[in-house]
Amino acid sequence: MCRELRREPAWVAAIRLAFLRGEVTVEGVVEEANLRPGHERTVRDVLSTMADRDLIKPLSGNDDTYVAGPVLVDSDRQHLDFSKASDGGAHRWQSSDD
Description:
By secondary structure, the protein is an alpha+beta fold. The chain is built from 4 helices and 3 strands, in the order αβααββα.
């Protein structure tokens, strides 16, 4: 994270959004990472690379919205305890198995 500007890498913001909000969008990553306007193309490239690596996957054929992919879902962090999270945070996404 860039402490002076309170910015973080787009991929970190994307993973956070996938776990906490259940979906990842370019606009959401720009906001979450505190990026300046004009970085949307870079964020799209990052999300595309993450999708190629199965970290995230497109939501129902929508190329602009992603959900957690198999690599994130099957990671060791999947079993975190969200029972003490606030009502406004830490949402679980719907998996295709539900």
